[in-house]
Design goal:
- With 285 residues, the protein is of the alpha/beta class.
- Helix content is 39%, strand content 16%.
- It contains 11 helices and 10 strands.
- An 8-stranded parallel β-barrel has the order 1-2-3-6-7-8-9-10, surrounded by 4 helices. Strands 4-5 form a two-stranded antiparallel ribbon.
């Protein structure tokens, strides 16, 4: 079966939320925005509505809930009541219901093994599933920076997310890739159901990108730049259909959109995955 065409999602993490970025994205055919309740100092939704409210109907919008402002600063919570209230507030602040709401980094509250954590995760998933049923958002998913704790706690009787977002790219470690792929399989997620994030591990200016040439993963190595090749390869590590990538420059976004024409050499990807797994086996337990 042919997979979905690769898609670029404009991520607003660390973004200044400038209107010119959104108009530039539309000009490039990028019509998906990804934000979160805690982005831009917990003001992302309100700023988007204020500076580009007329543009938002042209986008599909995903956001995330799970981080909250508490008396001692930012805190994470999987409390179903707080999660539902956050979804309601997101719709109010955006001036529209989000197309997709992610449960944001549930592992933040699940790192310590405990018997009740399976129930905590299930209740959080149920809260978002109920919010979807009641029309507060069109769909819900899970966004996980480290999916290992989530994998060990999923419950077959709990609601299944429509979308999973995980780290993707050449800088993702073998353990994280294995956990992400196992979680995709456990939730039986198919074409269009898996998104990637942070394809450059933080920045295209990191020294690692000057030391390696990701074009080795492409069939035509001369067609794209190193940055473009790294971005294109990220769709296969793990296999994802969309990647949320942040930038404040429409020119950079255009470069990444241009990378989608590249064809990945699947055999090289598989050889790389084998190397990562071999390295894991060689590491002491």
């Amino acid at each position: 079966m042919r997979g979905a065409d690769p898609r670029v999602v404009l991520g607003l993490h660390r973004s200044r939320h400038e209107r010119r970025l959104l108009t530039g994205a539309l000009d490039l055919g990028v019509i998906a925005l990804d934000t979160s309740t805690n982005y831009l100092g917990f003001s992302s939704h309100r700023v988007l509505a204020r500076t580009a409210g007329d543009l938002l109907p042209k986008f599909t919008i995903s956001t995330k809930v799970g981080y909250f402002l508490g008396p001692d600063g930012v805190e994470h919570s999987l409390d179903p009541v707080r999660l539902r209230a956050a979804v309601e507030q997101a719709a109010e602040d955006l001036g529209r219901e989000p197309d997709l709401v992610f449960l944001h980094n549930p592992e933040h509250s699940l790192r310590e093994a405990a018997s009740h954590h399976r129930d905590v995760l299930a209740q959080a998933c149920t809260a978002l599933d109920d919010a979807t049923t009641e029309g507060l958002c069109a769909a819900w998913g899970v966004a996980s920076w480290d999916p290992s704790p989530v994998l060990s706690l999923i419950d077959a009787t709990a609601p299944r997310p429509s979308v999973l977002m995980v780290r993707a790219g050449l800088l993702v470690g073998g353990r994280t890739l294995d956990a992400a792929e196992a979680l995709i399989q456990a939730w039986d997620l198919g074409d269009g159901d898996v998104w990637g994030m942070s394809p450059f591990g933080g920045s295209t200016g990191a020294p690692v990108w000057a030391r390696i040439d990701p074009r080795v993963f492409l069939r035509d190595r001369s067609r794209l730049s190193r940055v473009q090749a790294a971005f294109r390869a990220a769709y296969h590590l793990p296999k994802v259909d969309s990647i949320a990538v942040g930038t404040d420059e429409p020119t950079h976004l255009g470069e990444l959109v241009g990378a989608l024409v590249g064809e990945v050499e699947e055999r090289t990807i598989q050889e790389y995955r084998t190397l990562l797994r071999d390295r894991l086996r060689d590491q002491p337990a």
